[in-house]
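Weekly modeling sync, notes
Attendees: S.R. (lead), two postdocs, one rotation student

Agenda item 3: backlog of single-chain predictions. S.R. asked that every request posted to the team notebook include the full sequence so nobody has to chase files. The rotation student volunteered to paste the first one in as an example of the format we agreed on. Action items at the bottom.

Example entry:
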Amino acid sequence: QVQLVESGGGLVQTGDSLRLSCAASGRTFSRYSYTMGWFRQAPGTEREFVAAITWNGGYTNYANSVKGRFTISRDNAKNTVYLQMNSLKPEDTAIYSCAARASRLMLATQREYDNWGQGTQVTVSS
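Predicted structure, as returned to the notebook:
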């Protein structure tokens, strides 16, 4: 079992930046290699992929809508994954959730992940 806790969300204006954090814990998390991802869900829409990073940070993947503005990274010594979000737009408003899967592969769909956090709200005002 892996526990994921997101933080760092909030209300910002267009063009501002935010950094989300996802702290992972659990016995299995320290035992295996985990691919980590960020997903988001806006009201009335389905959850969508935002970014993912492989277990050692060697590979990253981004949705086209955030490419060049968002950066995913991880600090395995702290069991934490980050999502740096720059040049935020109103359409980035959503609940952002962290996900994890014991794997060394790049995973970019939500059905591939089996551990999820509760999410953190990001609101970007125009």
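Discussion: group reviewed the output briefly. DSSP finds one helix and eleven strands in the chain.
Action items: rotation student to repeat for the remaining queue; S.R. to check formatting next week.
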